[in-house]
Amino acid sequence: MTSRSSTFRTLGLAAATALVGSLTASTAIAAPEGPDRAPAVQKKAAAKPVALPDDFNGDGHQDVALSAPMAYIGGERRAGYVAVLYGSKNKPSTTRKQILHQDSPGIPDQAENGDQYGRGLATGDLDHDGYTDLIVGARYEDTAAGRDRGSLSVVWGGKSGLSGSAILRDGSGAHASGGEFFVTGDFDGDGDTDLADTNSPGLRVFAGPFSRDGVPTGVTDHGKVPRYSIKGISSGDVDGDGKTDVVATVFEGHIPKRGLWRYSGHTMVWKGTAQGPADPVEVTGVAGQPLSGEALDLGDINRDGFEDLVVGRTWEQGDHIDELAIAKGGMITYVPGSAKGLDSASVTAFNQDSYGIPGVAESSDRFGAAISIADIDGDEYEDLAIGVPAEDLGLGYDAGAVVTLRGGRYGPVSETARVLTQDTADVPGTAEERDQFGLALKLADTSADGRAELFASAPHENKDEGSVWIFQPTATGITAKKSAVFGPKSLGQRPDISELGFTYND
Questions:
Q1: Which residues contact 98 (CB under 8 A, 6 or more apart)?
Q2: How far is CA 446 from each of CA 163, 173, 210, rounded to the nearest angstrom?
Q3: What pLDDT score was predicted for residue 35?
Q4: What is the pLDDT of residue 253?
Q5: pLDDT confidence of residue 439
Q6: Which residues have CB under 8 Å from 394's CB, separation 6+?
Q7: In 3-state terms, what secondary structure has residue 17?
Q8: How many other CB atoms sit within 10 Å of the CB of residue 402?
Q9: Other Cβ atoms closer than 10 A to 377
């Protein structure tokens, strides 16, 4: 829940792949002339504009998109909308907002019962015009191909913000539903942003640049993963070769000989190559065991120039016995990047019983249900926010919490851990049963000061209306002081079942 960052990290994300394109284009030189000819004139190709990641209007500030996929639109239940908060030097605010749904002017199709517009979100400069675009998934959109096939559409960025839209994928083709797990990146290193969707038996890659009517340069399929369902996906450059890699957590259920249902989790990486993503390779975790998990994100936590992987695992039973002790209550696994890719020999795992981390590992806490990585304190080591949505607080069953860890030379530093809940001083609201505060998270530097604000969701707050909190960064980490909260009413939307904050742009 993407991936969706510091300026350095953008090389591994879709929007910043334009930077690679501008550098390579500017070095194009004409071939030398023969001996009887005048020296050739060296020509520089026009540099393409570079989009700042998540900057929809090109003002130099990151913007944040978050969804309410269960919201009513025009009387249609679970039609869904996306709320965009535009960044500025004065921090994010609901006064600089935009609401997008399928009844909005310029958005294709129409709001219908159950579409869940905004179930998945991603960003990237698909048309290479220097503005980041927003890709929106409607997971249960009905199309000409069938019921609940899902769709992907793009809302184009521009000087005045997001406007105009086009369908990118309509769920047609064998095994080709879409709208939930997709990422952007320069998977082949050609300088253009591509889109990869996982709702086929592998990756379906739509090569950029895209035309304004949503047509990609080409479409290819890469590396089937049979029998697995995707649980989470992110993209970044883990080996520093200038090509974006894709990492996904996958999940398999099967019935062994004894007739008992058993679950198996794995993490797969599709390495970026000149031909696009290579066939997937499995990433291992603790003691060389398969790396199980759901949530994940990529970022340069140890500041060595390679993006690192953090995977959150919330289930405690089943697949890999060596992990069960630390999996109690949920766990996260840190896998550093390197010139050879993700370094599974150097993994580190944490749960709430690990040194320095607040709380106690208790069954079903769901520590690691959400992961977001960016530089909170401005020291150029990227930091980590972790959701613990089923943390019990007093009488508040599943009230929820968020834990932050600062990055360091050897990865996440557990001694720096801080915890935030709705019962923390200066945090608006009260921890209540089933709020699930921390179910989705986003770190984003919306004020362009080198420090990322924290957006933390409780989609089940107020009987599933949903609420989002904004926390401010300091030189020592996230603070509860001057934190703010908003819900559907603050956005001018109906206060019904919305699950506001269900997901963020990655």
A1: 83, 84, 86, 161, 162
A2: 20, 39, 27
A3: 31
A4: 63
A5: 97
A6: 423, 431
A7: helix
A8: 27
A9: 20
DSSP state of 488: G
* Cα 494 from Cα 83, distance rounded (Å): 13
Round to whole Å and give the CA distance between 276 and 279: 10
> What are the helix and strand counts (H, E) for the chain?
3, 27
Angstrom distance (rounded) from CA 398 to CA 396: 6
Q: With the C-alpha atoms ordered 373, 483, 403, 459, is the resulting torsion angle positive or negative?
A: negative
The enclosing H or E element of 25 equals helix 17-26
Per-block average pLDDT, block size 10, for the chain (506 residues)? Answer: 34 33 29 34 57 94 97 94 95 88 93 92 97 93 72 95 92 62 96 88 90 95 77 96 96 61 81 96 90 95 98 76 70 97 95 92 93 98 97 87 97 96 95 94 96 97 96 96 96 94 92
Q: Minimal CA–CA distance to 368: which of 426, 480, 468, 285? A: 285
Q: Which residues contact 137 (CB under 8 A, 6 or more apart)?
A: 118, 119, 120, 121, 150, 151, 152, 178, 179, 180, 182
- Residue 236 and residue 303 in contact, taking contact as beta carbons nearer than 8 Å: no
Contact yes or no for 443/374 (Cβ under 8 A): yes
- pTM for the full model? 0.88
**φ, ψ for residue 10 (rounded to 5)?**
-60, -20
Q: What is the pLDDT of residue 230?
A: 87
Length of the chain: 506
